[in-house]
Amino acid sequence: MYAERASRLTGAVVWTNTPTRPGPGRVLPDGCMDLLWYDGRLLVAGPDTRAHLTDGTPGGWAGVRFHPGTAPALLGVPAAELRDRRVDLTDLWPAARARNLTARVNAAPDPATGLERAALSRAADTGPPDPLLARIVTALDAGRPVAATADALGIGARQLHRRSLAAFGYGPKTLARVLRLQRALALARNGTPLAETAARTGFADQAHLTRDIRELTGATPLQLLRG
């Protein structure tokens, strides 16, 4: 069973998931990175360019999903280094530091609470996120073209690409595509017909929407909606 709530860390979400049936699961690209807890271990989920298929391992998971672009500063790792990867925290941080944080999370009343406290502590140590990153996400999520986004932000296309790689794990075109996927699925899940969803989210037609979603997720919109 999956559940989530807004975190006290701005823009983040705290979630838990205990699979209720065997078999693999599907985690869709969303432009985010997560700090994960599983079986007493801490891992980092990098930004995905395609659906991540879980192996159906039994047991509960917990995580903090960071707003796009904010995790690299908190974790000290460029997002591009973790693209399409799940990495043990001990592979990213010095061993003693990783063990200390893991122990603190495991000592909390529950893993989700421990992860949120860890995220809040890291945010207090690193300071506020770069406001430019939020403006990039807002512009692209609104469907603004990449070139127009760069112009509106007063930066060149190459700088926008470099900043996006470090903060989001991929270039602005891929980020825009992932954000459009999420917008389209949100509309469809709320009952908007697929043809209307395609028109409202900038696809040429329903066939274009279906093709793009299949490329990003490995499933059709109808399969995702049924799942």
How many structural domains in the coordinates? Answer: 2
Number of extended strands: 8
Oligomer: single chain
Globally, the shape reads globular
Domain HTH araC/xylS-type: 130-227
Protein name: Helix-turn-helix domain-containing protein
Keywords: DNA-binding, Transcription, Transcription regulation
Pfam families: DUF6597, HTH_18
Task: Characterise this structure.
The protein has helices at residues 71-75, 95-107, 111-126, 131-141, 146-153, 157-168, 172-189, 194-200, 206-217, 221-226; strands at 2-6, 13-17, 26-27, 33-38, 41-45, 52-53, 61-66, 86-88. It has 227 residues and is of the alpha+beta class. It has two domains: 2-126, no CATH class; 131-226, Arc Repressor Mutant, subunit A (Orthogonal Bundle), CATH 1.10.10. The strands form two sheets. A six-stranded antiparallel β-sheet has the order 1-2-7-4-5-8. A hairpin with a 6-residue loop joins strand 1 (2-6) and strand 2 (13-17). Helix 4 runs antiparallel to helix 5 (146-153), helix 4 (131-141) packs across helix 7 and helix 7 (172-189) packs antiparallel against helix 8. The longest helix is centred in the last third of the chain and has 18 residues, at 172-189. The radius of gyration is 18 Å and the shape is globular. The relative contact order is 0.14. The mean pLDDT is 95.
Précis, in short:
By secondary structure, the chain is an alpha+beta fold.
